[in-house]
Amino acid sequence: MAGNPPAQAFPSKARVAILAELEKERRRLIQNQSMNTPGASIPLSRPSPKEFRDSAEQQHIAAQQKAALQHAHAHSSGFFITQDSSFGNLILPVLPRLEPES
After folding, report:
1. Whole-prediction pTM value?
2. Nearest to residue 80, comparing CAs of 59, 96, 64?
3. Are 43 and 35 in contact (CB under 8 A)?
């Protein structure tokens, strides 16, 4: 056979693309490292609106959990914990296990 079959040419092209992407990433990291000197504490990029919204949403949920936990402790004799729930509950009741009397 005189030439390479197409099946062998594709991995070569993919390999070249991967190597080019790695080289680009390496250059970006080197550039960022040279810009981030110990004296410079100014961030070079702002958080995206999605990251900002996610952070604000997490803070809002944490505040809601704290308020719900304080309310539950003040108005109930039970024990409650904050935990992520599949059903959207901010706090969950904790029931102690009692050993059966013999």
Report:
1. 0.38
2. 96
3. no
